[in-house]
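Minimal example, chain plus iron/sulfur cluster.
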Amino acid sequence: MLPTLRRQLASAAALPRAVSRASGNPVRSNWLRGEVQQVWDTPLMELVFKAASVHRMFHDPERIQLCTLMNIKTGGCLEDCSYCSQSSKHKGTLTKATPLVQLDPVIQAAREAKANGSTRFCMGAAWRGLEGRKRGFERILDMVREVRGMGMEVCTTLGMLTPDQARQLKNAGLSAYNHNLDTSREYYPSVITTRSYDDRLATLQAVRDAGIKVCSGGILGLGEKDEDRVGLIWEVGRLPEHPESFPVNTLVPIPGTPMENNEPVPVHTVIRTIATARIVMPKTIIRLAAGRHTFTETEQMMAFMAGANAIFTGEKMLTTPCSGWDDDKAMLSRWGLRGLRSFEDAEGNKVDEKFVQVEQGGEAVLTPEAMKTIEAQ
Ligand code: SF4
């Protein structure tokens, strides 16, 4: 039996019936908010166990993807995201605006990231969108071609996109596009006023329509409540196709921003968010993103246990600190974890449809053949 399948079946056998038959392993886009809330409210250790079991059915639990994020254009952004030091609206921050970087430093940084084991290279530009940036966009398309040509997954975050811009990025070889929903629809206006939740969803639609994978997650510690965390997971969990990637960021308060004095988010909230997202979106790669450097090694391992399976590593993550490659590689090796080599590995983790089927209404259940195989073991 293939190792992935063996793991899926072993996990399924370990699942309480209520999980394997109802909320545990389905790939559903019809989640009700109350159902997501119910998952969230599960006692934490039980929730982590369920999430870890679901995780093993869809992913290799020994693999964590290393990703590197490069800021290709810093500061001077016209949006007013309250957490961000790159907004031109927050005059008290120390971030200085810089022009779009040239192609060569990007190639160099991507080569270095690849040599250190990163299989995904993300590029972020601090601006509202690409309107009026024809030459800059052409340079970004070259960046995408070059990085993709190195065999890495390539992701960009460039603000709002039109369908045509999305198509051009796809043609250049873009693997994924990051555009975070950040928080629930209700809390969103307390964080950002220059762009609506529906604007964000329209960009995600353009990305998906162009055939680019969607990366969309949130930030914890914005002053939101648990119901907003549930609201965020519910919003992404009911997209027509779940995001391929769901980054979980924790706020790194930056002096001069309106959120500079926000309380840190407790680690059990981060773990609960990851575990709930893992159950709601079983196939998605969950990225432990900004703020990871504030967690202890054991806390990070709890996050991996709960279903996180990617980290950002390198020198910096946009304008916030990041753990370095050497430290991360040593940490993963202490816990018997390895880097995810490329997206082909993730393909190999696809659930075997002979054993899991999605029923009408969106629930996935084990087929009679799977149950027979489990019982025979
Ligand atoms: S988060 Fe992005 S869009 Fe918002 S202000 Fe910062 S750079 Fe601009």
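Residues 77, 79, 81, 84, 86-87, 126, 159 surround iron/sulfur cluster (CB under 6 Å). Residues 16-25, 344-350, 358-363 have pLDDT under 50 and may be disordered.
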